Amino acid sequence: MSRRYAVVTGASRGLGKELVIELARRGVSSIMVGTSNTVETACAEINQQYHTHSLAFIANLCQKEEVLALAEKINQRYEVFLLVNNAGMGGSKAFTDADCDYLDRIIQLNIRATSLLTHELMPNLLKQPKSYVLNIGSMAAFTATGYKTVYPASKAFLKHFSYGMREEFKGTPVSISYASPGAMATNPEVTARIEKQGFLGKFTLKTTRDIAEKCIRQTLRGKKHIIINPLSYFFSAIIPGCIKNPLMTKIVKRELKK
Fold first, then answer.
1. Tens digit of each residue's pLDDT (9 = 90 or more) over 71-96
2. For residue 210, what are the domain limits?
3. Which of 114, 108, 97 has the alpha carbon at shortest distance from 9?
4. For an engineered disulfide with 208, which of 18, 32, 44, 139 has Cβ 3.0 to 4.6 Å away?
5. CB atoms within 10 A of CB 126
6. Number of compact structural domains in the chain
7. pTM score
8. What is the CATH number of the domain that holds 152?
9. Helix 114-126 / helix 64-77 crossing angle, nearest 10 deg
10. Under a CB-based contact definition with an 8 Å cutoff, are residues 120 and 75 in contact?
């Protein structure tokens, strides 16, 4: 029997790597996609520790041609039962200080790469008895925030994209899930930056291992929306935009000043 793989983008480090590790704990091998040879090192480490047969692919997902070439290579050689669109980028900058390349990279990676890779791998996923797509979003999708602007909008796109895909593929083998992580401790620098936001920043902070475990578990159960921190989601849902939008903008602005 041929081996079936999970495809995980942004797999070199942080949440992406932890998602691969969580799958490895379940005996699943992954096709790990990253932008440098760091992904090859991470892949070798995981295979040695968990005795899996994961593979490393290097691709710049901001480039349409590389997204399509990656998908073609995967479809020709491997069976895929899970696609995790984890790769993404964001940050905090005044809109007028952000250059066009910075804004464009967010759009190309968070929106275009996810859409195209899902489209190209869907025939592969549909061939499986049961398969899954997990799109990693953000709690930012629920709040329009100054000094982030394009990033929350891109994650709002992913939410609607995921929900629409789920409706379209009802009755097929493919289940589509959307996850809403809040702040995550991906590395000391990011953790320190989040802690500068004060109580609300630290309030939602979770480890990548906790997030990865919940994401994989609930994806494989067919969950539509995976809420990492129910309390922060509850407050985000009940607080009207006229209050939370300026509040979050103030918090991010404080982070930029420190």
1. 999 999 999 999 999 999 988 899 99
2. 4-257
3. 114
4. 18
5. 12
6. 1
7. 0.90
8. 3.40.50.720
9. 10
10. yes
